[in-house]
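Lab notebook, bench 4. Continuing the backlog of folding jobs that were queued last week. Each job is logged with the same field layout so the records can be merged later without manual cleanup. Today's entry covers KaiC associated regulatory domain-containing protein, a 203-residue chain. Filled in by technician R.K.

JOB TYPE: sequence-to-structure
TARGET: KaiC associated regulatory domain-containing protein
LENGTH: 203
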Amino acid sequence: MVLTPRPLEERDLEATVLRVFLKVIDLVGGPKALAEKKRLTWAGSLMTAAYAVVLAQEGMKGEEAIARELGLSSAAVRQILRADPEAALKRVQELGEGERLKTHVAGGLAKAAYRAIRQGQEEPRVLGYFLERFVEMMGIPWAVLVLKAVKGLDFPADKEALLARLKGLRLLDQPAEALLERLEYPVRSPADLLHQLRLHLEA
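JOB STATUS: finished
OUTPUT FIELD FOLLOWS
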């Protein structure tokens, strides 16, 4: 059976923006480091940069369209999208306490974060927390079971590792073992696991 991917929707973009934003916070040392170094004002710039990068990469939007959507100048969007991730990661270590974050640095950090999540390098505890709260809020019992079963598992994960955790579970009356046979490996993250399982459960 060949599964076709879902059309890209606004909520998919927003979910990716959140993942990029959380990874950016991780790259700059986490929430505690931001607070201790008086950098909480960076949050707005980092979120804007994350949106711009995701709209360009996943939404396939150009600079002018992104500028209109985010209420930015075209020059600001250009600085974000053309920023050097490695230079930004180096520059952020040199910034003094309370120093303002420039647009190109925020853009470089967002690009580094986007690259990291596409390579499966996410903070599993943070992502896991948000996933658990979301599926509980949405009342998705099979997803709650899966997340509880894989809690503490290192990702990316192969079939054997997931089978050891999910063996014996039934998801919408289907055995987890059969579903795991259909997934693409390695599974990059808990979010990727839920996404792939949902595609097969809805097929």
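OBSERVATION: The longest strand covers residues 170-171.
SIGNED: R.K.
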